[in-house]
């Protein structure tokens, strides 16, 4: 069936900021959809609030709105653009929920916009727990015993009914409707937990609905990625099996494709069931993800749920098979059928051929619990991972070890790498194995080493014995490698996925010695193609994975090649922004006629799409794996400055082994990190920095702190995302930090800086070609210095610093670029205090602000930087002068606190944000207001404000408090702050402090929905008072905006004033850049 010609303009809804449960896989699907629809001649209008994505680049859609993804804003865009259709299935849960709100509010009917890809009834049926249950019963599929509750009394009745039918009262699984990543859900083992989780789930579900179901804990879990077209052709793209049994969210489980432990009969039953589900739910076209569970004792198969949209697993399934699910889904949505669309990889087979894979794919989740010490690290049905790595091998063992070394956690395989904690006694080890946690896979190795059996571990974990036997065989092989057993040659060890580092550790050699020995024996990796059809047809797209077999499918390049090293799995501190830079490098170098080679291990990203670069290597970003690719390809140059800290950590070692790094040299990058050299450089340039010192012991640190005076900022050298950075106020705090947080050593000293209190922090991105340097933008942080730049809101152009300081910043930035011989991008952080400029730090590499700056000024900085690295000059590229926009752009950070109930939300020098949004408007207040809406924290226009300030802030806050009073808010406060407010003649209602144990207090008001806004500045200690933490975390749990510093409170009052006095308008990036 040919495409639908009654449609000309299609609106795509993106997924907004990167949050736990909704990562950059939806940027990947959005980009594919934009490309596919434009290819077919449609006009594409896109709305997404996330500036770090590739999809919000102005060249991907015809009209790009970087605006909050809310029904009210999308309605304004529909009114302005008059699209013919809306495609809701590629923007994750956010896109789907927003589209459904527009349907319910009658907006689509009002403007005559039709939903394509999935109709409202199908979405409702797939998402609404009760409708889904009825649909499954109708087609005869088995489901867990369950019921849907809208109130606590419903929930209690349902729990009794389930107990009657199953003979068991607990555990029970609670799943809220229409939330992402299982937010608000959980497993209840007793009635108290049951009430807590149900209350939370009802709160978080936009339709106040939770599903309560019998526990399937210990059952095996599977996913099927299925596609259907308008002629009812259905195909399974990929089956995926969770290594962890039911009870762990699939986003937090290690997953394997294709499924390994299903019999052919079980697979065929599941395949038939998948088709029955997608037909009954009525997803007319596109991809769906359907989850099943099988009881290991009886074989009973149950359908758990379906996502009537492209899901998180769709990116994994696409990368695992080479089948571009989102691209095909977009084309099916406009009327094509699967048999009419060619498979891009074979160019011979149609998309109706089910992919077949003759290798094994393993996905491992990446966690950052170290950022939230008080969070519960137990893995449950609510997702907690922030990213993932994927690897491909000929066998599960090879893929598993490669996946573990792709995680960027310092591990080089399942074990035998000198890391890990094997000192646990039997009881501690059992506890670590029985309860799912991020490190459980490594504890399983320890268990085998301690003599535990496969049967014993199966009883404890519910992990299928097949997987446990595979892991046991890897452990057994370690002994043979150590003994240098002739039966286990290096080749055999490599086929089991062992890295050179592991073999070296087991044999007491160096990694380079093992590498040399391996190469002398002719043991070098071969590269195989991902071809969607088990090598039955030739693959046209060079998408490779390494293995140690006989056949090498690597193809010689005909042009000059550049290798780009990606950023690996997303984590806090290193996110999608770096992938954005890598993708731009690939586009830019292609334009210059180079052949580009991308190396990355992250399945969620655009960089690992098979058509972003000329060659793609899905490999771990380790010294061994990257050098192997270099030796196979021999590229002219390699880019290490775009993938964040990951490739930079490899740069020096790669360079000393013959890899040619283009752009700013790794030496310059290291020198910028070298304290002594950097201080001398600043002195030479006449630039100031805060007094500082370098300590290799606790005594040294205290001596330095006493010399430069408290407060001081302490941090380890070479850190990512402000890891282990802390502001300390006295000797005692400093001693405890030095003892517990870091291992100081001469190779890795601890940096101690005088902390500039109440200074304004400035971020500057600069591009240089070695001759000309241009400031991309000067960004002013809203929060004061001391809050990590990735967590702070920031504004372009700066709004409160003087023209003299701006001039000084610009001059200093260019001087530093020249001195450090920057060829490419550089980021500098300054602090301004009392009209004095201080340099905080310099990073001669691409920073996380590059996409935000590029979208604000309308110049693709990463693209220009890649061309500069390849030898082009800025003058020839037409960029020699700073662009000062005549609109304001505000970048706001988005945090995962709601996933970690009870954790403190106060910001500091260690980064905690998972993503970011952008507000853009001619008015600064409105731009800030939009950024808050986009971050799911819309500011109230009226109501009650609770204010509690530390003593040092009470004087400074007078004007801000007056502003909220004038805006018409009622003020509430505890005694100390109330007194300060009354002294200014402003009415305030006094509340009891929590510590007084008298009621009503602020918590009662928060829970009763009587507080609309909280301003609570912290007491400043490293360990804030428990009642402060309770107030802040309760406000977050109840979706109340909380400001923990005066600057943010001031910006919010300005934004509320703008919202009350101005109309909120929307405008495309293309229009902003024209003006």
SSE layout:
Elements: E1 9-13, H1 25-39, E2 43-47, E3 63-65, H2 71-81, E4 85-87, H3 92-104, H4 107-110, E5 114-115, H5 120-127, H6 129-138, E6 146-149, H7 152-166, E7 172-176, E8 186-188, H8 191-204, E9 210-214, E10 220-228, E11 234-242, E12 255-257, H9 264-281, E13 286-294, E14 301-307, H10 312-321, H11 325-333, E15 360-366, E16 387-393, H12 396-405, H13 426-434, H14 440-449, H15 454-461, H16 465-482, H17 490-495, H18 500-507, H19 511-520, E17 526-529, E18 543-547, E19 561-565, H20 576-591, E20 595-600, E21 615-618, H21 623-633, E22 637-639, H22 645-656, H23 666-673, H24 675-685, E23 692-695, H25 698-708, E24 712-716, E25 726-728, H26 731-740, E26 750-754, E27 760-769, E28 773-784, E29 794-796, H27 803-819, E30 823-833, E31 836-843, H28 850-857, H29 861-869, H30 874-877, E32 888-894, E33 915-921, H31 924-934, E34 944-948, H32 951-954, H33 958-966, E35 970-973, H34 975-983, E36 989-990, H35 1002-1007, E37 1013-1016, H36 1026-1037, E38 1042-1043, H37 1046-1061, H38 1069-1074
Parallel strand pairs: 1-2, 1-4, 2-3, 4-5, 18-21, 19-20, 19-22, 20-21, 34-35, 34-37, 35-36, 37-38
Antiparallel strand pairs: 6-9, 7-8, 7-9, 10-11, 10-13, 11-12, 12-15, 13-14, 15-16, 17-18, 23-26, 24-25, 24-26, 27-28, 27-30, 28-29, 29-32, 30-31, 32-33
Helix pairs in contact: 1-10, 1-11, 5-6, 13-14, 14-16, 15-16, 18-19, 20-29, 25-26, 31-37
């Amino acid at each position: 069936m040919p495409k639908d010609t009654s449609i000309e303009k299609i609106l795509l809804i993106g997924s907004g900021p990167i949050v736990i449960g909704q990562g950059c896989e939806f940027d990947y699907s959005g980009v594919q959809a934009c490309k596919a629809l434009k290819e077919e001649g449609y006009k594409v209008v896109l709305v997404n609030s996330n500036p770090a994505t590739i999809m919000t680049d102005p060249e991907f859609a015809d009209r790009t709105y970087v605006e909050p993804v809310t029904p009210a804003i999308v309605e304004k865009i529909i009114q302005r653009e008059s699209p013919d259709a809306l495609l809701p299935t590629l923007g994750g849960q956010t896109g789907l929920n927003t589209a459904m709100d527009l349907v319910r509010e009658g907006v689509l009917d009002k403007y005559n916009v039709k939903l394509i890809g999935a109709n409202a009834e199908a979405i409702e049926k797939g998402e609404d727990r009760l409708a889904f249950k009825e649909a499954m019963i109708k087609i005869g599929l088995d489901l867990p015993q369950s019921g849907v509750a809208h109130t606590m009394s419903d929930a209690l009745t349902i729990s009794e009914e389930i107990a009657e039918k199953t003979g068991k009262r607990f555990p029970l699984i609670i799943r809220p409707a229409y939330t992402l990543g299982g937010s608000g859900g959980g497993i209840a083992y007793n009635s108290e937990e049951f009430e807590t989780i149900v209350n939370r789930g009802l709160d978080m579900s936009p339709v106040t609905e939770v599903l309560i179901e019998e526990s399937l804990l210990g059952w095996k879990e599977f996913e099927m990625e299925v596609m259907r077209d308008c002629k009812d052709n259905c195909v399974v793209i990929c089956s995926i099996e969770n290594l962890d049994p039911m009870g762990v969210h699939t986003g937090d489980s290690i997953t394997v494709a294709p499924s390994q432990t299903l019999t052919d009969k079980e697979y065929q039953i599941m395949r038939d069931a998948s088709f029955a589900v997608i037909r009954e739910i009525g997803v007319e076209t596109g991809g769906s993800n359907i989850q099943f569970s099988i009881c290991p004792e009886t074989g009973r198969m149950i359908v758990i749920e379906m996502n009537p949209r492209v899901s998180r697993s769709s990116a994994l399934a696409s990368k695992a098979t080479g089948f571009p699910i989102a691209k095909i889904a977009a084309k099916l949505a406009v009327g094509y059928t699967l048999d009419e669309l060619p498979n891009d990889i074979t160019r011979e087979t149609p998309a109706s051929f089910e992919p077949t894979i003759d290798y094994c794919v393993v996905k491992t989740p990446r966690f950052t619990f170290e950022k939230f010490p008080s969070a519960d690290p137990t893995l449950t049905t609510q997702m907690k991972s922030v990213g993932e790595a994927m690897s491909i091998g000929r066998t599960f063992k090879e893929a598993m070890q490669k996946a573990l070394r792709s995680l960027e956690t310092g591990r080089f395989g399942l074990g035998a790498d000198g890391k890990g904690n094997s000192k646990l006694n039997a009881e501690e080890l059992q506890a670590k194995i029985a309860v799912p946690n991020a490190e459980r896979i490594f504890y399983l190795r320890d268990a085998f080493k301690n003599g535990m059996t496969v049967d014993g571990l199966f009883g404890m974990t519910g992990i299928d014995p097949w997987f446990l036997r595979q892991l046991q065989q890897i452990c057994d092989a370690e002994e043979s490698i150590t003994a240098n057993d002739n039966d286990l040659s290096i080749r055999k060890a490599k086929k089991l996925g062992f890295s050179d580092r592991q073999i070296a550790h087991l044999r007491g050699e160096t990694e380079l010695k093992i590498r040399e020995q391996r190469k002398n024996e002719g043991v070098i990796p071969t590269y195989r193609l991902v071809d969607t059809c088990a090598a039955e047809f030739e693959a046209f797209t060079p998408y490779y994975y390494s293995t140690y077999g006989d056949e090498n499918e690597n193809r010689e390049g005909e042009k000059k090649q550049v290798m780009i090293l990606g950023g690996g799995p997303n984590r806090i501190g290193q996110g999608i922004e770096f992938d954005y830079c890598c993708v731009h490098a690939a586009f830019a170098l292609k334009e210059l006629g180079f052949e580009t080679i991308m190396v990355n291990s992250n399945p969620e990203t655009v960089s690992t799409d098979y058509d972003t670069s000329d060659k793609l290597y899905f490999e771990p970003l380790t010294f061994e794996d990257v050098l192997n690719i270099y030796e196979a390809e021999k590229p002219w140059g390699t880019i290490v400055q775009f993938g964040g800290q990951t490739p930079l950590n490899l740069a020096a070692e790669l360079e000393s082994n013959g890899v040619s790094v283009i752009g700013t040299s790794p030496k310059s990058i290291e020198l910028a990190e070298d304290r002594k050299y950097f201080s001398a450089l600043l002195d030479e340039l006449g630039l100031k920095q805060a007094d500082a010192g370098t300590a290799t012991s606790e005594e040294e640190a205290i001596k330095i702190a006493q010399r430069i005076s408290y407060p001081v900022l302490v941090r380890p050298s070479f850190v990512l995302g402000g890891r282990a950075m802390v502001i300390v106020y006295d000797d005692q705090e400093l001693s405890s930090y030095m003892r517990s947080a870091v291992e100081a050593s001469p190779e890795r000293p601890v940096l101690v800086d005088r902390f500039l209190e109440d200074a304004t922090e400035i971020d500057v991105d600069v591009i240089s070609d070695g001759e000309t340097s241009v400031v991309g933008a000067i960004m002013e942080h809203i929060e004061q210095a001391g809050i990590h730049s990735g967590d702070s809101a920031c504004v372009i152009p700066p709004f409160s610093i003087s023209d003299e300081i701006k001039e000084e910043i610009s001059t200093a930035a260019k001087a530093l670029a020249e001195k450090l011989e920057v060829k490419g991008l550089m980021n500098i952080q300054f602090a301004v205090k009392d009209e004095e400029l201080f340099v905080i730090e310099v990073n001669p590499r691409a920073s996380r602000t590059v996409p935000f700056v590029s979208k604000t000024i309308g110049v693709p900085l990463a693209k220009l930087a890649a061309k500069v690295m390849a030898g082009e000059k800025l003058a020839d590229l037409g960029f020699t002068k700073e662009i000062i926009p005549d609109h304001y752009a505000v970048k706001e950070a988005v945090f995962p606190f709601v996933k970690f109930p009870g954790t403190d939300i106060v910001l500091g020098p260690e980064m905690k944000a998972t993503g970011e949004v952008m507000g853009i408007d001619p008015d600064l207040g409105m731009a800030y207001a939009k950024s808050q809406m986009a971050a799911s924290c819309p500011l109230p226009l009226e109501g009650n404000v609770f204010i509690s300030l530390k003593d040092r802030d009470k004087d400074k806050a007078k004007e801000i408090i007056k502003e909220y009073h004038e805006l018409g808010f009622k003020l509430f406060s505890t005694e100390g702050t109330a007194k300060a407010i009354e002294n200014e003649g402003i009415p305030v209602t006094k509340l009891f402090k929590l510590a007084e144990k008298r009621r009503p207090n602020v918590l009662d008001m928060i829970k009763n929905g009587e507080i609309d806004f909280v301003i609570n500045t912290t007491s400043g200690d490293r360990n804030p008072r428990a009642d402060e933490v309770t107030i802040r975390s309760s406000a977050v749990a109840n979706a109340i905006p909380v400001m923990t510093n005066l600057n943010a409170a001031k910006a919010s009052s300005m934004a509320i004033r703008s919202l009350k006095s101005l109309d909120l308008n929307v405008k495309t990036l293309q229009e902003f850049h024209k003006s």
